[in-house]
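re: ur msg from earlier - yeah i can do the EPZ complex, just paste it... oh wait u already did. ok heres what im feeding in:
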Amino acid sequence: MMTTTERRFYIRGGVPLEGDVQVRGGKNTSVAILAAALLCDDPVRVENLPDISDTRLMLAMMEGIGARITRESPSSVVIDPRFLTGVHPDDGMSRSMRASYYLLGALLGKTGEGAIAHPGGCDIGSRPIDQHVKGFRALGAEVDDASPLITARGSLTGAEIFMDCVTVGGTINVMLAACRAQGNTMIYNAAKEPHIVDTANFLNAMGAHIRGAGTDVIRIRGVSRMHGCSYAVIPDQIETGTLMIAAAATHGCVTIHGCIPTHMESLTAKLLEMGARVEDYDDMIRVYSHGAHRAVSFKTQAYPGFPTDLQQPMSALLTTARGTSTVTETIFDSRFHHLDEMRRMGARAHIVGRTAAIDGVIRLHGASVAASDLRAGAALIIAGLMADGETEISNIHYIERGYENIDERLRELGAQIVKR
Ligand code: EPZ
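and the outut:
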């Protein structure tokens, strides 16, 4: 939560990033997997968790309803969900985080009931959860979502569910609720993001029977018991992409270790089109860049298209590309606040509806800017790393929701960034 004494990032730009960096576990996977652990009948170990405010908040909400959490290290926890004392996680915490909705799917699947305050999260436009509710109802739950509290109750039976839009959260939440339902569930028009596959793999490691995750039809055969396991979260696709963009933006050379290059194909293709160099290895990507970048155009899309979560960092890079780039945001209706801030740094961007035309300038200059959401904050860091002079970024709590020690890790790559 923001406080008046919140520290800020101060960046002196113009230094090429050089060296090696290890990517952390996926934020959006971790929050789903932590909630999914509630479904288990035994203690379960989750490894490779990023130590960020969103995972800490999720664990605190789970602890609040009786899950016993043992921190083995900053990146590993054991969750014992055998002695839950409630099915209604704290309203204040739920409201401050989008992924709190996964607790409803998991609690409904495990205990047949749950209640959660309407989830909050980054302000990037309207974020309905009608598809989650539709899925729970199809499985036989009675759901009341008319008040500030969403409640769901019922003994669940498998069903055929056609998602009206491709939704990451909706797909995962229905998967959570369905994996202990009686009988078979089919989810059509499912999202295919790496987090869906990772969450399904985790559920299967606990004994669930889920097939087809990563395609647009997911089949689930309900099981009556789920057993303990140890599971390591996959690397963060968006953190990997943010670091790739930062390497290109500073005309540096960065090797990102522990990532999954196949998750990065849409970004890699755009970076190559701009004139940056990208080398893929088994679990490593090297990005380097010399000379000016060319303008490119892209639309955000569900996986394997260009991820909306990289639209903001990528548009920071485009502010100095030669020519006019066109960026169309098709997933969320208000994800261009970062461009308003970057205009203070000399960026030229014209927004009409969901499309931004970005005219490349020679250089950005440092300015005092504010993060309006997590990826807007990441975009401002990239802009600051590119700019002449000093950039001051406020509202960094948004950035710390999703990037572990980002200042420290960028400093190890040579960036002049401090938090004070
Ligand atoms: C997840 O949000 C991520 N959050 C977001 O990450 C990410 O931007 C988004 O997926 C898209 O990839 C988490 O995983 C916690 P959606 P989610 O449901 O699940 C519409 C970040 O920066 N929709 O896939 O909320 C919705 O309005 C963030 O890390 C409905 O209409 O996204 C949007 O237009 C922010 N009804 C589209 O679907 C629904 O019931 C995709 O949303 C659900 C969604």
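cool cool. DSSP finds 14 helices and 23 strands in the chain. ping me if u need the other ligands too
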